[in-house]
């Protein structure tokens, strides 16, 4: 069906809404990355099978839907029953029959699948009341987890493409740019560059061709916001891109998606095809005379291809290496033409701004960081998952109120924001408001939104070592400070972890870091030493403990720790069985002993002991 | 072209002064360069100083892929820009007169540059077999 | 024409000219390993970094690679500040760890007072400084027979799949331009081997001395319309032939005069 007028779009929206309203009951099965790994695709099939078999009055097979990521990954696989919003967590295929029978047929709850907050012991039925969800405000994630990403009709029913219609009929390109500028929207990819200013610069450039690109090359370990948007609500990204293209006068663009996100590629392609078919993409969009087309460009998964100039070279089919940017890519980008490159989340936010207005958007967040930001919570936090919160919220609220705090009775130690090239912030920074400028001032950065939470069993030096290793692997190798500098920085960090370093080495690392930061060619290199710089800033004592005392206070660095068995040992033999090098001796019901010479400090005994009898010193 | 370099073989006595003058005129680091001019005997006791003819449609210029050979309109010489030369040897192979060559001592390609407008060979030629003059 | 201030001295430069070109013209010693006039600058080695600022920046300054920075009016350039020296020294120090056997790097390090690297010597170091001069010069020839493959510290310059590069013409431009001389090749009387590919050399029809590879000659014939016979003899024999030819003319002229 081709939608060639605004009237037709409204009519179609009403039809879509009516169709959804006719579905009294809906089962939404989360097919986000986490739940999918937990087998939610099988759960979906099982629901469909049983619902089809039972022929229930209130629910049809069509009303059993797959959705994108619902967010609460720690509790997945997730199933939500609408309209009540009944939230079933940790669902197994075997539970499906029971859910159908109890909830869909009898209208009762399957208590054991409901979520109970471990801190308050309160059990929740409606997911909207769960603290994890209650504190969130979803703009870019507005549809993720709520709609079937393959159905353009569901996106339209929820107001999709209304912003585009408004822009094409009521606004001039400059009006769009002004609205984005006034909204204060800043790039969600990490840099935080004002989006409106970027668009204005591109539009101002004299050129016959301009490109509008979307950066979906989310490469930070532990970050999956863009993935979830592309998988769960691809049309919002397309709509944002089309609006941008109209504003800057572009006729073609690309979505750059990394090859490691196969489902994102599939869903984005389906969305592009569907939008094409409806006349919402391609030639003469909504019969406005404006044409814009989008192609998907698949990246090989190099971290550096998230950097704008490397990304553009990769799209052009060249080796994904950055170039020096004394001329900005917004002026000379893809094929040397003016190019707007924004991140997935930024584009997903744009339609809402167009619809609700710049002032509304400004009213959320802080003065200089307006709106909301999506984060993925990972690491040592109870509620790992995908969230979206207003800017200016404190780290404490994110980690403790939404994230549910640190599991296993451990203490919070640090949170890493901004990906590998971001930084680690310690407990005394927990009350900092999360916005672009505050995080940068604190020595970290907003980044694309990955948050890795660490507990007191995490060693700061080891964390730096891990992320430096990642960056050494992912450095493109073009310029010397990044290629050789990070390589040597990592070597020195390993030396500290092994207890072989001196204080001179630490001084050398600090000097080297400064040079890498100033002399590297691209942002990846310039921020490359950050894992070291930010940990040494906040956890210098820990570095010195490794160097002077040859101790790892967190009990992580193998060369500097010993495992011993204390008198809580019951002599259960469990550790003896699990030790891969037979370093533990002892008889049943007698204290076991670890032979330190033979021990490889793998930690298996510690993990297996049920009596806290293994100490790490 | 304002100047012309003229070779008059009948006046050449094969004394090789031009060769010495050229080598010293192109000395670097106190080492003489390779001469860009060759007084060769075409018959017993008959000599001709062979050097670059600064061809109008020069094969060396055409063969250089890096644009390192360009004509100096002032002196008329085809000059080699050492900063651009990669020493690939294309000009050496392409010159039909064998007048671009490799200087092993200084590790570079050399050819006559008319000494930037005052050729040493002509200045030192005792018989005026080499003449650089305004035309 | 623009005016820039280099180390306190006002200098004229052409608009759009790269800063390094101006600095070199002014006789300022700026180290640069990846720079060559025949190729486009890429800023790999980072040695030519200088500090720039402008009067209106109010003391704010930044460090840029001068090979890639187009001059603009009012630019204030400082080439030897303590920060710049620190950058250069650190980079040379890192290169020394990476290329312990390169005399070019050793010499450069000594100039900066580094006699031993502060870092651990890279075990797999092969003296290649990854400046891309070779791949860039090959690109100028329109061949791109070799390129930088892999990434990060594992990056190497190699032909496709490490096999004989089909597009290589054996011209040696890559080996010649290499600042650390690490691209090996071997010549016999009639063949040349580079990048594991063996080429036939054209040998002089009169003395047998090698001229250039057949592929390179064919390339120049096709690209630049150089006649085939120009490549058939060596430079020495061509000079001798020239002498004979000129002699003939002289003799004829003399005979005619008689």
Tell me what you see in this structure.
The complex is a heterotrimer of chains A (617), B (135) and C (258). By secondary structure, chain A is of the alpha/beta class. Chain A contains 25 helices and 19 strands. Chain A has a five-stranded mixed sheet. Chain A has a four-stranded mixed sheet with strand order 2-1-3-4, covered by helices on one side. Chain A has a four-stranded parallel sheet with strand order 9-8-7-10, with helices on both faces. The mean pLDDT of chain A is 94. With 135 residues, chain B is an alpha+beta fold. Chain B has one domain (3-134): Alpha-Beta Plaits. Helices cover 18% and strands 27% of the residues of chain B. Chain B is built from four helices and eight strands; from the N terminus they run E-H-E-E-H-E-E-H-E-E-H-E. Chain B has a two-stranded antiparallel ribbon. With 258 residues, chain C is an alpha+beta fold. Chain C has two domains: 2-111, Ubiquitin-like (UB roll) (Roll), CATH 3.10.20; 133-238, no CATH class. Helices cover 31% and strands 19% of the residues of chain C. Chain C contains seven helices and eleven strands. Chain C has helices at 19-25, 82-98, 103-111, 133-140, 173-177, 214-224, 235-257, and strands spanning 2-6, 9-13, 49-54, 61-65, 75-78, 147-149, 156-158, 185-187, 191-194, 197-203, 210-213. In chain C, the strands form three sheets. Chain C has a five-stranded mixed sheet with strand order 2-1-5-3-4, sandwiched between helices. A four-stranded antiparallel sheet of chain C has the order 8-9-10-11. Chain C starts with a strand and ends with a helix. Chains in contact: A-C, B-C. Chains B and C meet through strand 2, strand 3, helix 2 and helix 3 of B and helix 5, helix 6 and helix 7 of C.
